[in-house]
Specification:
Helix content: 40-55%
Strand content: 5-15%
Strand order of the largest sheet: 2-3-1-4-5
Structural class: alpha/beta
Number of helices: 14
C-alpha cells in the first residue's frame, strides 16, 4: 500500500466563503485542490456502508460519472475512461478502503491535470456542512486538518438566498428561521470540533480573511504545514484565474471586501431582526455586532426555536451512528 498525503478539508455553511479559501489554495505547489464539491461522505461512503467491494467499486464509478458531468465542466475535459482508470489505480494503490476512495479522487485529478504529486503535502477538498463528519475524518486521518469558515449570518443569509434562487428556482425560498437553524448548528459544531480536535481544527471568519489577507494566509500556511508561497495571494480554480462566485454579478481579480456588510442594503429590517434574535448568542461569540432590539414576541419565538434546536442537536448526538471501524475498514464489516 502506497503512502498518500493527509487531507485538508474546507467546511462551513454554504456561501460562507469556503470557495474563496479553496481558490486561494488552488495553485499552491504543495497542494492538490479538487475543483468541485464532491460530497464524498453523503454520496459515496454512507450509501455503500456494509456493501461488498464489488458493489462499492460500481457505486464509485457512478459517483465519478456524475462528477464528470457536473455543469461547471472541470472534469469534462478529461476522457471519462481515463479518469475512471486513473481513479481505480489510485484507490487500489492506497488499499481500497474509504480513505482510498476519498484521497484517490483528488490524486487522480492531480495526476491528470499535470500537478507534481511528488511534492504534495496535502490534498484538499471543499464540501459545505461537512463539519458534521469531523469524527470520521480524524478517525481515518489523524494528521488531517479541517478549516471551518464562518461568516456574518446576515451577509451569509443574503448570499445563500440569492444562490438558491439562481441555482434551484424550483425549491421553496429560504426562510430566515430555517437558515438560522443551520447556521447555528454549524457554529455549534465549530466550537465542539475545536474543543475535541484542538490544533487540527481551525475556525476562520470570512471577514478576517478579506480584511487582513496577509496575516490570515500566513496562519493558514502554518496550519496546513505548507510554505508561504505567492500563489496564495491569487485565487484560481483548476489552475485558472477565478473571478469570484458573487451572487451580485461582480467579478474580481483578487481578494475583495465589498461583500462585507452588504446585508445593510439588501435585507429588510424584519429579516435582520429575526436573524439577530435567533442567533444573538453565537453572533456575539464570533464578534458580530447586533443592531436591533427584537420585540418580546420575536424574543419568545427565538427562545422556543432555539430550545427546539438544542433538543434536535441532543437527539443527533445520542442516536446510534455507524461504527467508526466500518468507515475505516469497510471490508471488516
Amino acid at each position: 500500500m502506497s503512502q498518500t498525503p493527509p487531507p485538508a478539508l474546507i467546511v462551513g455553511h454554504g456561501k460562507s466563503g469556503t470557495t474563496l479559501v479553496q481558490a486561494l489554495l488552488d495553485s499552491h505547489p504543495q497542494l492538490a485542490v479538487f475543483p468541485l464539491e464532491p460530497y464524498v461522505f453523503g454520496r459515496l461512503v454512507l450509501p455503500t456502508l456494509g456493501k461488498s467491494a464489488e458493489d462499492r467499486r460500481a457505486h464509485a464509478t457512478t459517483f465519478l460519472r456524475k462528477l464528470h458531468e457536473h455543469p461547471l465542466g472541470w472534469l469534462a475535459e478529461i476522457p471519462f475512461d481515463e479518469l475512471d482508470t486513473t481513479y481505480r489505480r489510485h484507490v487500489e494503490a492506497a488499499g481500497g478502503d474509504y480513505r482510498a476512495y476519498h484521497a484517490g479522487l483528488v490524486l487522480a485529478w492531480a495526476e491528470l491535470t499535470g500537478i507534481d504529486t511528488s511534492r504534495l503535502r496535502r490534498w484538499v477538498e471543499k464540501t459545505p456542512e461537512y463539519e458534521k463528519y469531523a469524527d470520521y475524518v480524524f478517525a481515518q486521518w489523524p494528521d488531517a486538518r479541517m478549516l471551518h469558515v464562518m461568516r456574518d449570518p446576515r451577509d451569509n443569509f443574503g448570499s445563500y438566498k440569492r444562490f438558491r434562487i439562481k441555482h434551484h428556482p424550483h425549491r421553496r425560498a429560504v426562510a430566515a428561521d430555517s437558515f438560522a437553524r443551520r447556521w447555528r448548528e454549524s457554529e455549534r459544531l465549530a466550537r465542539r470540533n475545536l474543543t475535541r480536535f484542538g490544533s487540527r481544527y481551525r475556525i476562520l471568519r470570512y471577514e478576517d480573511l478579506v480584511h487582513d489577507p496577509a496575516t490570515r494566509l500566513g496562519e493558514l500556511a502554518d496550519f496546513f504545514g505548507i510554505d508561504l508561497d505567492p500563489a496564495l495571494e491569487q485565487p484560481t480554480l483548476a489552475g485558472r484565474p477565478w473571478g469570484g462566485n458573487s451572487m451580485h454579478g461582480e467579478r474580481f481579480t483578487g481578494i475583495d471586501t465589498s461583500s462585507v456588510g452588504r446585508w445593510r442594503s439588501t435585507l429588510d429590517e424584519a429579516t435582520v431582526t429575526a436573524l439577530e434574535a435567533r442567533l444573538a448568542t453565537p453572533m456575539r461569540r464570533l464578534g458580530y455586532e447586533l443592531t436591533t432590539r427584537p420585540s418580546l414576541t420575536v424574543h419568545g419565538r427565538a427562545w422556543l426555536d432555539n430550545g427546539t434546536d438544542q433538543l434536535r442537536a441532543l437527539w443527533h448526538r445520542l442516536r446510534p451512528t455507524p461504527p467508526r471501524r466500518v468507515l475505516t475498514h469497510p471490508d471488516s464489516a
